[in-house]
């Protein structure tokens, strides 16, 4: 998905515009269970296009002086965005900080659309011409407070989206990424894998996409490791901030079939691990929990079973994810990883036959019928798998309101028990029979 970044010095109204752009979608996103959402980053829609918006102002880099702050935010935008919305304050005119940002954006070669905010009344629009001086062509007058001018602004933004005309989803390659807190061993693990395998191609660091993906073949199967920045340690200050690493992780997750959530055996499970895992779960990707640095664990003192129990307790929403214990350093048990990735990827794309599916569900319903809610009872008429990646099922019923989540969970477990969807989330939707 195209990424739009909003930049501008403090108090020009970045967050207001951000909230306007994402509209009600944020509440939809937050409906999902178990996951803390990062407000700096959300999906938005204009006409028929969906895109991501980043509010770079939401990435706090600490107590930096104003100019350092805006410079860092502009750099994030330049690194991450396909199109940049540069916001200035129409009630204050062009300031030194605006010019500073303009210079950086100018050098970046990214498309920039200039928005002049706080143009609440038509009379103010006379002054719009002075903003041509910033050098980004036509300035768009907007009012974040009143929601004015956003349509024209977005029309212009959408025009600059890159054309994704090639299909990204190559069925024969398994793409996977590694996500996790800093220092859990992501880069070590990537290197360990790549040292064992014969790498086919490695993208050269490009000017437009600054990711390095590596493809290799094993047992007749091609795999691509999606580069997650933070593994390359470019050393910019903001790369250490949590929100920024989340942003990078989300981009990597987007491009993967399977996501490895890396946990550090030495430090144990942390709150941040759960948050990171939540993103992969929400994205509907295949998930494997990888416990790295297993070499540091004295097997007499802590067993895999104990560690697994711990993980299951902390990651209840990932009960479908298999767990792999290994050491990137000693390469112990490293060979167990690829077969699991392959299995999870297959499950993620698996389609089950409708007749078997219905037999299984109808049997389950006959043995454990739904209990009635307010005197009415759910009737299940028919089940069908509507899509893959992740596998999604529609259950046609007399009244979707009568589908209690525990019963839905029961059906999900039946499907899992029968068809073995290890490692992939599955979706079940109840629909009224037409
Ligand atoms: P990243 O930030 O997640 O990419 O983590 P790195 O790959 O840079 O690793 C962080 C530190 O953990 C480094 O000092 C590694 O040498 C160390 N490390 C990585 N994997 C292992 C492992 O399997 N065992 C041990 N003992 N140390 C490891």
Largest sheet: number of strands, sense, barrel closure? 7 strands, mixed
**CATH architectural label of the largest domain:** 3-Layer(aba) Sandwich
Overall pLDDT metric? 83
Q: Given this structure, which CATH class of the largest domain is correct?
A: Alpha Beta
H and E order: EHHEEHEHEEHEHEEEHEHEHEHHEEHE
Kindly report the CATH topology of the largest domain: Rossmann fold
Estimated share of beta-strand residues: 15-25%
Query: How do the strands line up in the largest sheet?
Result: 8-9-10-7-11-12-13
Kindly report the name of the CATH homologous superfamily of the largest domain: P-loop containing nucleotide triphosphate hydrolases
Bound molecules: guanosine-5'-diphosphate
The residue fraction in helices comes out at: 25-40%
Family: Belongs to the TRAFAC class TrmE-Era-EngA-EngB-Septin-like GTPase superfamily. EngA (Der) GTPase family.
Protein name: GTPase Der
Function: GTPase that plays an essential role in the late steps of ribosome biogenesis.
Domain EngA-type G: 2-165, 174-349
């Amino acid at each position: 998905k195209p990424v739009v970044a909003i930049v501008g010095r403090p108090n020009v109204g970045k967050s207001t515009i951000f909230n306007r752009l994402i509209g009600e979608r944020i509440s939809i996103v937050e409906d999902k269970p178990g996951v803390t959402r990062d407000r700096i980053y959300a999906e938005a829609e204009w006409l028929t296009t969906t895109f991501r918006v980043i509010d770079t102002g939401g990435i706090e880099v600490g107590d930096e002086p104003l100019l350092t702050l805006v410079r860092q935010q502009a750099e994030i935008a330049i690194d991450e965005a396909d199109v940049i919305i540069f916001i200035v304050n129409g009630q204050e005119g062009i300031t030194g900080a605006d010019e500073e940002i303009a210079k950086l954006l100018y050098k970046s070669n990214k498309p920039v659309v200039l928005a002049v905010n706080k143009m609440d009344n038509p009379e103010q629009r006379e002054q719009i011409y002075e903003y041509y001086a910033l050098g980004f062509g036509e300035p768009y007058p907007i009012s974040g407070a009143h929601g004015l001018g956003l349509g024209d602004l977005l029309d212009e933004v959408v025009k600059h989206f890159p054309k994704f005309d090639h299909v990204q989803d190559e069925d024969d390659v398994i793409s996977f990424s590694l996500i996790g807190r800093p220092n859990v061993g992501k880069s070590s693990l990537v290197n360990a894998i790549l040292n064992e395998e014969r790498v086919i191609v490695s993208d050269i660091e490009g000017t437009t996409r600054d990711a390095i993906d590596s493809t290799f073949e094993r047992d007749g199967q091609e795999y691509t490791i999606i580069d997650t920045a933070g593994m390359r340690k470019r050393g910019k200050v903001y790369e250490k901030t949590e929100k920024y690493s989340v942003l990078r992780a989300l981009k990597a997750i987007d491009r993967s079939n399977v996501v490895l959530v890396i946990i550090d055996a030495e430090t144990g499970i942390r709150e941040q691990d759960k948050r990171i895992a939540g993103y992969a779960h929400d994205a509907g990707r295949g998930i494997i929990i990888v416990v790295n640095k297993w070499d540091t664990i004295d097997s007499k003192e802590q067993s895999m079973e104990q560690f697994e129990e711990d993980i299951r307790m902390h990651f209840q929403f990932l009960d479908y994810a298999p767990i792999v214990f290994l050491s990137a350093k000693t390469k112990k048990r490293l060979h167990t990883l690829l077969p699991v990735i392959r299995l999870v990827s297959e499950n993620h794309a698996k389609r089950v036959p409708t007749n078997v599916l219905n037999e299984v569900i109808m049997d389950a319903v006959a043995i454990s019928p739904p209990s009635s809610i307010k005197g009415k009872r759910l009737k299940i008429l028919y089940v069908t798998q509507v899509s893959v990646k992740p596998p999604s099922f529609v259950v046609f019923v007399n009244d979707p309101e009568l589908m209690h989540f525990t019963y839905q969970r029961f059906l999900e477990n039946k499907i899992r028990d029968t068809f073995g969807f290890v490692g992939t989330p599955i979706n079940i939707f109840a629909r009224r029979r037409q």
